[in-house]
Amino acid sequence: MECDRIREGRTEVLVPRQDALAQFPPGTARVFYNPKAALSRDATVILLSLLQPREYLDTMGATGIRGLRAAVEASVPVVINDRDPMAAELIRENIAFAGVPVESLDQDANVLLSSRRFEAVDLDPFGTPAPYLDSACRSARRYLFATATDTAPLCGAHRKAGMRRYSVHLVKTEYHAEVGLRTLLGFIARSLARYDRGMEPLLCFSHQHFHRVHLRVLPGAAKADATLGRVGFVLHCQKCLHREEAFGLAPSCDPCPRCGGPLTPIGPLWLGPVNDPATLEGISRLLPDNTLAESPALTRLVRLLREELPTSTHYDYHVVARNLRVSPPPMETVLGRLEASGYRASRAHYSGTVLKTDAPIGEVERAIGGE
Ligand SMILES: C[S@@+](CC[C@H](N)C(=O)[O-])C[C@H]1O[C@@H](n2cnc3c(N)ncnc32)[C@H](O)[C@@H]1O
């Protein structure tokens, strides 16, 4: 296997040579490496620097870059696993080159997670993490991290696949990035609850074609009940864009209170906050003295997450303006008008044309229409 030595953050690793002309170059190499996932790894490394778990498992290592960066840059004890023999071989080479005391394994993820517990478990599979979440929920003592790249099933674009993988009823909405993230979080909340465990999201975001979640696992049936208490449905009116939240696993079937149209239940979704303000503040404090401060994408992401309201939906202001048949004013004007009317309003980290607010749709229309 022909390899190139690359550097990401402060860590150097060998990665297999890719066909740069292919539509998706990472798919052309025998062992997977996607440079576009650097932001996901940067976020995990800075979070691990803050949390300092006693043991971190990179369950699906590929080249091992995620786990190696955790060992080199966050100085946490690391285990890297991959069931593919060529990946496991490359991981061993990369560990030897980095000169860090990392344990390497080559087991199937579910076998490993069912036989050993780790303080922090990280799932970074191809596509959906759903087949590994049950064992990960049993193995993770304090922290559970996961990536999902199956954004279409998670957000309602592939409804049957969403039902099969995550047991959810979804429809396509303009806030699909939010629905995807909250479908994944809701599924993990229900998976943990089976084992009398709850969760607290620490650092979660949607970026391009993936969702990334980092959670603290909370022990006990009371925490599991409290976690399930934050799971529910968004009831969405496809006629007038009204939406409301309904907690619990059995949504009501009342008509839209605004226009009388049918309300479509979307969920079960995680309806609680997707980020922990104290964790984001801790990361912001660490960043200036960390080489990751040189990652403009990470600095921007953390700033946007700190400013973002924790609402479970957003409004795409182009969609609202189109419905009103007006040209949209600048985003800052709309946010300012909502705040002047006594509502809270922010941007969302995953799109430049959406706003989050606790104002109802009628007020959003007034702010966009300029009344
Ligand atoms: C998306 S790649 C991981 C990327 C890597 N974490 C990174 O940041 O570059 C997924 C990896 O999971 C491994 N994998 C797939 N199914 C697995 C399983 N059941 N158990 C262990 N590893 C598995 C594959 O061999 C592949 O290397």
Write up this protein:
This protein is of the alpha/beta class and 371 residues long. The protein has 2 domains: 3-280, Rossmann fold, CATH 3.40.50.150; 314-371, N2,N2-dimethylguanosine tRNA methyltransferase, C-terminal domain (Phenylalanyl-tRNA Synthetase, Chain B, domain 1, 2-Layer Sandwich). Helices cover 38% and strands 25% of the residues. The chain has 14 helices and 15 strands. It has a 7-stranded mixed sheet with strand order 5-4-3-6-7-9-8, with helices on both faces. A 3-stranded antiparallel sheet has the order 11-10-12. It has a 3-stranded antiparallel sheet with strand order 13-15-14. Strand 14 (345-348) and strand 15 form a beta hairpin. Helix 1 packs parallel to helix 2 (65-73) and helix 1 (38-51) packs across helix 10 (277-286). The longest helix is centred in the middle third of the chain and has 18 residues, at 176-193. The chain is globular and about 65 Å long. The N and C termini lie far apart (64 Å). The model has no long low-confidence stretch (mean pLDDT 95).
Q: Which helices and strands occur, and which strands form pairs?
A:
Layout: E1 3-8, E2 11-16, H1 38-51, E3 56-58, H2 65-73, E4 78-81, H3 85-98, E5 103-105, H4 109-115, E6 118-123, H5 130-139, E7 140-148, H6 151-155, H7 159-166, H8 176-193, E8 197-207, E9 210-219, H9 221-228, E10 231-237, E11 243-247, E12 263-270, H10 277-286, H11 296-307, E13 315-316, H12 317-324, H13 331-340, E14 345-348, E15 351-357, H14 361-369
Parallel strand pairs: 3-4, 3-6, 4-5, 6-7
Antiparallel strand pairs: 1-2, 7-9, 8-9, 10-11, 10-12, 13-15, 14-15
Helix pairs in contact: 1-2, 1-10, 4-5, 5-8, 8-9, 10-11, 12-14, 13-14
The protein binds S-adenosylmethionine.
S-adenosylmethionine binds next to helix 2.
